[in-house]
């Protein structure tokens, strides 16, 4: 009598694919979250690109570069939604299958001498659980297009890796650094006022000074990495020897670019601007390696007559913004230079 029921349950238990509508923001971007417990960064990928460019075997976190299969990047809200859809569909299929089995089952009479028993089967459909729909988060301001595979993605804060191919774009990283440094400098007065209210004036001043100083090595580091990445694009890069942190040494860096392409940093900046760039690079060294204390090496290299040995360097907002602009102009020139040479190839 229960054979129909068992067949129905067995049929429903077979694996099957469900088509699920997913929530997108107004630009068509799909919420994703890094599955690494150490990161958990939230970002978005355009749904078309997630389906067409991101392989099933792996995707990459834009923030930390963590690699994982493509089906492991759902947000908690999406997971809850998918589970509720699956549960509701299973309940519906089970209700339908058991209802059909009950209708096909004929009453059965069991004779037992003086007594006879007639058995029949009926089924009352169970409750189908509600579907908890996922909603898309707000659009993110920072949108990126991978220069290698053209995957479109967005993040809150700087991102470094393409979700589809894992490409680490030095150009995007540099642009993000420049933008972040400028926003940081612009926010310092507000930050200082807020800190003065929550701690005290001395602590607020020290915190702001530290943030100002931190921007110099941040800019130089991004500039160095951009130079390295762009230089590697040159067809003759492998033929030119490079040693150590060459692109932190401005004269050497300019010389090697001129040797490889015919254009050094003087193609993008005037002599006066190059002098200011060298001065700011030397100040970055004092901040990063001398805790801001002027030494003989700084005085000799920079020819900065405004300081004496033993004094402490003062970093101003104008210094940070000037370094950002000078680095940006060289970066723009080098990017155009390498792009043009790529086209010639």
Entry summary:
This protein is of the alpha+beta class and 345 residues long. It has helices at residues 3-12, 47-52, 76-104, 170-198, 201-232, 250-261, 271-290, 296-302, 317-344; strands spanning 29-33, 42-46, 59-60, 67-68, 108-112, 115-119, 142-145, 152-155.
Structure description:
- The chain is α+β, with helices and mostly antiparallel strands and 345 residues long.
- It has 2 domains: 1-103 and 129-168, no CATH class; 169-344.
- Helix content is 50%, strand content 9%.
- The strands form 3 sheets. A 4-stranded antiparallel sheet has the order 1-2-8-7.
- Helix 4 packs antiparallel against helix 5 and helix 5 packs across helix 7 (271-290).
- The longest helix has 32 residues, at 201-232.
- The N and C termini lie far apart (78 Å).
Name the descriptors.
345 residues, 9 helices, 9% strand, elongated, alpha+beta, four-stranded antiparallel beta sheet, 2 domains
Poorly predicted sequence stretches spanning 5 or more consecutive residues: none
In round numbers, the mean pLDDT is 84
Spell out the helices and strands N to C.
Answer: HEEHEEHEEEEHHHHHH
Shape annotation: elongated
Number of helices: 9
User: How many E-type strands?
Assistant: 8
What structural class do helix, strand and pairing data support?
alpha+beta
Strand order of the largest sheet: 1-2-8-7
Which range best describes the helical content: under 10%, 10-25%, 25-40%, 40-55%, 55-70% or over 70%? 40-55%
Number of domains: 2
Radius of gyration: 32 Å
What percent strand? 5-15%
Note the main sheet. Answer: 4 strands, antiparallel
Distance between the termini: 78 Å
């Amino acid at each position: 009598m229960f054979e129909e029921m068992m067949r129905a349950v067995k049929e429903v238990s077979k694996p099957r694919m469900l088509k699920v509508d997913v929530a997108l923001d107004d630009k068509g971007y799909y919420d994703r979250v890094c599955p690494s417990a150490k990161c958990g960064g939230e970002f978005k990928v355009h749904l078309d690109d997630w389906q067409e460019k991101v392989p099933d075997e792996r995707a990459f976190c834009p923030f930390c570069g963590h690699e994982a299969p493509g089906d492991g990047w759902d947000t908690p809200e999406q997971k809850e939604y998918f589970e509720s859809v699956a549960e509701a569909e299973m309940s519906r299929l089970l209700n339908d299958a058991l209802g059909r089995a009950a209708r096909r089952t004929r009453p059965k009479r069991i004779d037992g001498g003086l007594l006879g028993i007639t058995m029949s089967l009926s089924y009352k459909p169970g409750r189908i659980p509600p579907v908890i729909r996922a909603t898309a988060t707000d659009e993110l301001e920072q949108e990126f297009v991978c220069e290698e595979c053209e995957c479109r993605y967005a993040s809150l804060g700087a991102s470094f890796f393409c979700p589809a191919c894992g490409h680490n774009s030095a150009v995007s990283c540099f642009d993000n650094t420049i933008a972040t440094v400028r926003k940081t400098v612009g926010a310092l007065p507000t930050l200082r006022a807020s800190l003065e209210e929550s701690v005290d004036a001395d602590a607020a001043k020290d915190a702001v000074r530290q943030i100002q100083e931190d921007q110099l090595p941040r800019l130089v580091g991004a500039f160095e990495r951009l130079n390295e990445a762009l230089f590697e694009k040159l067809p003759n890069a492998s033929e030119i020897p490079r040693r150590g942190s060459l692109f932190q040494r401005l004269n050497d860096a300019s010389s090697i670019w001129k040797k490889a392409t015919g254009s050094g940093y003087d193609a993008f900046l005037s002599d006066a601007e190059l002098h200011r760039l060298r001065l700011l690079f030397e100040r970055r060294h004092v901040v990063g390696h001398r805790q801001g204390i002027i030494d003989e090496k700084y005085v000799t290299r920079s020819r900065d007559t405004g300081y004496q040995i033993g004094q402490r360097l003062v970093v101003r907002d104008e210094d940070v913004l000037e370094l950002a602009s000078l680095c940006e102009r060289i970066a723009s020139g080098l990017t155009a230079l390498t792009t043009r040479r790529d086209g010639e190839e």
